[in-house]
Each structure stands twice: as structure tokens, then as C-alpha cells.
Amino acid sequence: MTTSPYEHHEYDVLIIGAGGAGLRAAIEAKQRGLRVGIITKSLLGKAHTVMAEGGMAAAMGNVSSEDNWMVHFRDTMRGGKMLNNYRMAELHAKESPDRVRELEQWGALFDRTKDGKILQRDFGGHRYARLAHVGDRTGLELIRTLQQKVVSMGTDVFMECKVLKLVHDDDGKIAGCVAYWRPTGEFVTFAAKAVIIATGGVGRSWKFTSNSWEGTGDGHAMALWAGAQLIDMECIQFHPTGMVWPLSVRGLLVTEGVRGDGGVLRNSEGKRFMFNYVPDMFRAETAESEEEGDKWYDDHSAGRRPPELLPRDEVARAINTEVKAGRGSPHGGVYLDIATRRSPEFIRRRLPSMYHQFMELAGVDITRESMEIGPTCHYIMGGVQVEADTEATSVLGLYAAGEAAAGLHGANRLGGNSLSDLVVFGRRAGIAASEYVASGDAAVGFNQGEVDEAIREALAPFEKAQGENPYDIQRDLQEMMQTNVGIIRTASEIDEAIVSLEGFSDRVKNIAVKGGRAYNPGWNLATDLPSMITVCKCTALGARDRKESRGGHTREDFPKADPEFGTFNFAHSTNGGNWDSPITTERSPLLVMPDELKKLLEEAK
Amino acid sequence: MTNVTMRVWRGDSSGGDFENYSVSLNEGEVVLDIIHRIQATEAPDLACRWNCKAGKCGSCSAEINGKPRLMCMTRMDQLPEGPVTVTPMKTFPIIRDLVTDVSFNFKMAEKIPALLPPPMPEDGYRMFQEDVDRGQEFRKCIECFMCQDVCHVIRDHEDNKQHYAGPRFFIRIAELEMHPLDTNDRRQFVREEMGLGYCNITKCCTEVCPEHIKITDNAIIPLKERVVDANYDPVAWLGRKIRRKTKKSAIEAAVQPAP
After folding, report:
1. Domains of chain A (ranges, CATH numbers)
2. A514/B45 Cβ within 8 A
3. In this complex, is the C-beta atom of A518 within 8 Å of any C-beta atom belonging to chain B?
4. Which residue of A173, A406, B57, B122 pairs with A396 in a disulfide if CB–CB is 3.0 to 4.6 A?
5. Active-site residue among A239, A305, A317, A550?
6. Which tens digit of pLDDT belongs to each residue from A167-194?
7. C-alpha span between B146 and B215 (Å, rounded)
8. A359 touches chain B (CB under 8 A)
9. Using CA atoms, how far apart are residues B101 and B63, in angstroms rounded to an integer?
10. pTM greater than the 0.90 cutoff
């Protein structure tokens, strides 16, 4: 037993984050009879997973019988520009159909085919109709199903509880974490034999983002601080279709399902510009004319897929180029048109929440008018480096899954591969963490010094009478990252960001917080900022060093992919112990793919 | 640019009062934008919940000019002229400012017997769209808890929270009862432990649902009919006696091997 001056809990497996990955991991560990605790910054069921709209990719072959795991594997690797951990891509492609079916056993209600199977829809970068979905609210269905399962199993969930730092034992194994309750501001410690990071993404550090206040990279940062490596942090997905107007909703996601269901992109001249942006890698499988692309929607054998359904990095860059060339919409986006292509009934049935969202927030009826859209920061491919089969990090007892982990998506994630990522690797992390607990090698002690240090840092903003407003720092950080490490990058701007981030670290140390500790969003933000700045530093360092363009990393000064850079990830680590300790960056070679998998990539061209 | 006065309730469980903020408005802004602007400038400690800012997560429920609304989906330019009043949901205990203690809902959720499907065939279950349509309507619920907030059974009678689950959980139970795969029976449970009988179908819940779920017509009334059939229909009663059908508990129902 540990003696702690704070409220204290003990678990076998502790999961930080209650999105799809965290909940799926919890189910797995709970089914093995372990003591499982879940910590979430928000209420249960509010995680960013609810924002996933289009569906979850799984080669079930319900709509296109030709589909199988090998094609899904190939699509994922090509979409990721071959920077993926091939083994994760392989496991993901093989296991996601079972994970989808198991959700049905737990109560999910997917849309159906005529013969009563799970319906699948087309999406960017997927060769066949592969996304199991529920209209355009698939993420909600996923999280509600997992939430209800977790609750029915009697799992302990700590809601509105913010984790500050991981805690080690004397041997350096992970032993738990220190956190505070947002409603009261009181501190709480958790001792655990294994900890799974499932904290999602980092997008809150960009000005135009689809991410909520929670996407501050807490898990990325605390894993790094605890001794794990972060890779591919320069690979950030700017989703091509975010709302651009009104300004108050700029960045809000517009599902790729609009394009999957027939929507097309047009510039101010009314031209379907995507036909001018088909890269060589995808030329053989992309339609050459509008007629050919249009035929494909009704019959995939009658034509090749339209270029609007290229992977997201390609579409986002094309939109950016059109706007820069002066062919954008009045508010700096382009047009997404489904009104002229599908009936109002079809649009309302297939895309109900998009209809609702544009009608209520922008006053636009998408069954009659085009939507104005532009790229928005959406997802980070990079994250904690893990072992593919177990999601184990380099720190004993620490695991990571979902958006917080890296590898599956390489340099660019395909739409629909995120929800399946959550359940495939959430489950695997749950299994591996449980086995680690059973092995008896887990931590025994609990470093109280680390707890005290984290709490001292968290309380520092209350000690100053005068200082910075944390909201000012966040706003300036978002502006700076959007400008200097946005969708198109160049050396001078990245260097400026790296210098600037040191300044942001100093500003964080000068924060003064008003009010008390109970439900104080200003203070909560002050405790998020160290994570935000840490992940931004890794992103900027990776962006500086990756002197090429690949997937979600585009360099104006190095516009082409460089084969040599395709052989390794940039891995960041720190050993200073403090949140602002220097970060070192090394090259971490990619796993070498076995020949039979290499053949799959070649054969299917 | 126009200015608007926001009257925001500030305080905690020990009491509080309205505080006025004069804020400038930009085109297209919603109430949550204004709350965020107040936080970023005058009152960084103003407590509110929010996540997706797109009407999908149901975190930012509050009472705007006395009516339960999602702050992220309420356009400022569609509110009547004059000061805008923002108060926390009345039915739940105050934590701070606009944040309430909604744990009542999570406790109710724990009581509900889970889905109990037959073993899954090798290639998955077959269900038809027309059989899942109704369940999908209920599963649109974003758990904003505004239907709970507006339900007078608990809004005006604190004691009823002991034995009344509220509309959110009636649609949840209806969804399970109408689920094509479910073999559990929750009719007795919803009558005895969830207090379905207290609902006198005033449809306040339906009116505030941001997902436009027909809570009363499609969930509560059919559920009441099923409960009546189960309890007062002599043929059904005899059938139950003969088949000895008993309800499974949530925990029992959950313990199933993964496929």
C-alpha cells in the first residue's frame, strides 16, 4: 500500500482517456477480471470520437465482395505514403471486421444493406466501399456503444479529472499518475500496474481546428516526459473540408461522406479542379473525366473513382493551391457541391447532421446551395512510438493506443481508419497491459517526489498577483502554429516557430490565474499549456528535419518526397524530467516489410 | 458591430447572482462564442462545459432566456433583442456558474439491464433497415440531458430522483426493448425501478430535444403500452407464468464471451 497525502486509488490497469481507444482497452482488461479505472477530462461520452462522422473502415466485403484485408492493407500503406509501421497496418486490416461485428453484439445499430448486413460506404483512398456507418454520426454510435458496455460491466470512471503527470517507481517503471478533479480542484493520485494512454490528439494548438478544448496532447506530452518516444509529429492531417464561414464555426468538420456520397469540389469558376491535382501514384485508379467519375458512383466497374476521393493530404493541398491562386470562395475556401448532384431527400437521409449543422450555424441549405469549405487541422498521425502487437512503449508498464499512438497511419491517415484504429489497438493495448500485470513484473513503489513536483507546478499560477492570462498565450500559440507550422511549411517559418516556442515556455511560467481551484477553466488551461507547447515543439522539430514533402507534411522548399526520408521516422525524446527540458530528435528506422506483404503493394497497382 | 448585454449566472452551491457583461457581436456567433469571449477577457474563471461546438456531444446545455438550449447551436442573431440571460440547468445541483452536477444521469445509466443478444453467427447478425430505424432514432441522443432538465417530474420534485429515471433513459430502454436482437425483458424494471408511470406525457422533453427525437410519441407511449400489456393483460400474465421469463440483471447480461 502507498501512503499518499491526497485522495488515492489503486488499479491494475489505469486508462487515461475515455474515447474509443480508452473504452475499448477498458473492456478488454475488465473482461480479464482486472481492476480497471478510466480517467477522462470531460464527462463520459463526450470525447472527440463523437466528431467522427463518416464511418469505420473494415474490409468486410458486404458491398464490394472483392474487398479483403490485403486491399485494405495496401490502401492504408499507400495513403500513409509508406511511412507506416507495416505490422500495425497489417493487424488493423485483418482485425477491423471482427471489431465492427463485436460492436453489434454490444448494441450498435449500423445502417444496413438490402440483405440485412452492415452497409459500407465509399471514402477517400479506399479502393472499395468499406466504411461501416450510421448516417453521418458513426463516432457517436461507437462511443455510445463502448460507453454503455463499460458502464454495464461496472467499470470505475473518473470524470472531469485532469492528469498532470505520470509517476514512476524507483526502477523507472510506470506506477500511476497524479491528477486533479476539475469540479473541486483537489488533487488525486492513482497507483497502477499498467497505464494506457488513450488521450487523443493535439489539434487545439492550431487556430483553425476541428478539435475541442481537450485536444491538447496531454498523453503525447506526459509519455514523452515519462521517457517514451514520439514519432512522426510533423505529420498533421489538415482535413480538406472544414467550414470556413461564419468565422465562429471556422474549422468545424464537414464529413468526407459528402464526397463519398457524390459531392464534388468546385472553385470560383465552377470548375472541378481536383482533376488537375492527381498525383502519379494514384493516376492509374483515378477517373480522367467528369463523366467517368460520375459513372463510378453508380457502378464501380463502369469507371474509375473521381479525384475528389483522393487521400486527404492531396485534396487539402489542392484546395490550398486553388485559394492561393485566387480561385477561392468569398471567405477563403472552395465550394463543396452536393445540391446539384443528389436529391434533397437523399442528402437529408444520408447526411442529416451536415444538413442540420449548415442550416443552423451558417444559414445554408445544403440541399439547395454549395457549402464553402477549406482545410482544418483535424488529426495527428504522429504520437507515442509503440510496439505493433502490444502497443507497449519503451517505458515498462506504459501503453498507448488511438490517436495518441503513432505508426498505423504513416504520414497520412485515410478517412475511416481512425475509428477502426481505436477498437483494434485499444483492444490490443488492453490485452497486453493485462498480460503485463499478470506477469508480476509491474511497479511496486510510487515516487511521491514526482507527485509533489507536479502539484507544485500546477499550483504556481495561483501564487502570482500579476502575470499572463492563459487565454492570451493559447490564442497567440494558435496563431503562431497556424502561420508557421500549418499546411504548407518552409524552413524560415519553422525556425521562427522553434525560437518562438521557447518564448511560449517562458510565458507559461509567468501565468497568473484568477479565482479559486474549483471548476476554473483559466486554471485548467494553464495546466494544459505545458502539454500543448511540448507537442508543438516536437512537431516543429520534425517539420524542420523532414526536408521533403510526404503526406501530412508539406514543405514549400522541398516539394517532392525523398526516398531516403521514407526509410525512417523522426523520434523525439527528453530526459530532463521537466516539461520544458530540451528535446532530442533521432532517426528511427522503419520496420522492414516481409516480402509477401511487399508483393501485395506491387501486385495491386 | 453591435453590443449585447449578457446576464450570466455566477456562483456555486452556496448561492450566486447574475453578472452583466457587455460584449461585442460578430456575424454568425452563437452563445458559446460569447461565453468564450468573456472567459478569454474579463472572467477566465467563468465555468462552463463544452467540447465539440457542433451540436454533437451535448456538453454545453444551459438555459438561455429561461429555455434549455445547447449554447453552441444557439445563434445570437436569432434571440430577441435585449439582454441575453444564461443560467445553468435548473434540475441538477450547481457545481459552479453554468456547470451542474449531472451525476444523477450516470447513476441511472448504470441500472439499465444491457442488451442481451443471441450468440453471433459466424458472419455477423442480420438485421433489416426497417427494423433498426426506430432504434437509430433513439441512438441519435447526444446526452445533453436537456430532456431531463425540463421534465417537471424531477425539475419540480427533487424527491422523485430516487425512483424516476427521466426521458433520456426511457428512450434508452425503449431502444433496447425494440432492438431486433435483444432477449432481455425490462418491462417490470421500467415500471418499478425507473418510474415510467410518473410521466404524464406533457411532451416537454420532445420539445427541447436538439436531435428532434420524438421522445414521447415514439418511446414513452409505446413503452407505457408494453408495460400495461405485461402487467394487466391476463393472457400475457399467464404466458409469463408458464414460460417463467425473468429479467436478467445488467451485470449478468454483460458477461458474455467476446466473439
Report:
1. 1-235+381-605 (3.50.50.60), 238-377 (3.90.700.10)
2. yes
3. yes
4. A173
5. A239
6. 999 999 999 999 999 999 999 999 999 9
7. 12
8. no
9. 15
10. yes
A246: nearest CA in chain B?
B28
Pairing of strands A371-380, A334-337: antiparallel
Chain A with chain B: Cβ pairs closer than 8 A: 190
Closest residue to B55, CB basis, from A148, A356, A525: A356
What pLDDT score does A577 carry?
Answer: 75
Question: What are chain B's domains?
Answer: 2-100 (3.10.20.30), 103-254 (1.10.1060.10)
Q: What is the 3-state secondary structure (H, E, C) of A10-41?
A: EEEEEEECCCHHHHHHHHHHHHCCCCEEEECC
Element (H, E) at B2: strand B2-12
pLDDT at A110 over 80: yes
Chain A 122-161, residues with CB within 8 Å of chain B CB atoms: 134-135, 137, 140-141, 144, 148-149, 151-154, 157, 159
Query: Rounded to an integer, what is the distance from CA B99 to the centroid of its chain?
Result: 16
Omega prior to A246 cis, within 30 of 0: yes
Which residue has cell 431502444?
Answer: B175
User: Residue A298: its pLDDT value, please?
Assistant: 86
A584 CB neighbour count, 10 Å cutoff: 13
Cβ–Cβ of B259/A105 closer than 8 Å? yes
Tell me how crowded residue A185 is: count the other CB atoms within 10 A of its CB.
19
Contacts of B96 in chain A (CB under 8 A): 183, 518-519
* Residue range A256-281, pLDDT digits in tens: 999 999 999 999 999 999 999 999 99
Report whether pLDDT(A604) > 70. Answer: no
Q: Decide if A259 is catalytic.
A: yes
Question: A246 and B29 in contact by Cβ < 8 A?
Answer: yes
Which of A43, A116, A212 has the CB atom closest to B128's CB atom?
A116
B114/A148 touch (CB, cutoff 8 Å), yes or no? yes
Gap between the Cα atoms of A32 and A35, Å rounded: 9
**Does residue A22 contact residue A198 with C-beta atoms inside 8 Å?**
yes
What pLDDT is attached to residue A250? 93
Of A50, A514, A519, the CB nearest to B52: A50
Judged by a CB distance cut-off of 8 A, whether residue A48 touches chain B is yes
Alpha helix ranges (H) inside A106-188: 138-152
- Across the strands, what pairs with A112? A118
- Mean pLDDT of the region A386-392: 98
Phi, psi of A500 (to 5 degrees): -60, -35
Does the beta carbon of B122 lie under 8 angstroms from any beta carbon of chain A? no
**Angle made by CA atoms B203, B205, B208, in degrees to the nearest 5:** 115
Q: Supply φ then ψ for residue B28, to 5 degrees.
A: 80, 5
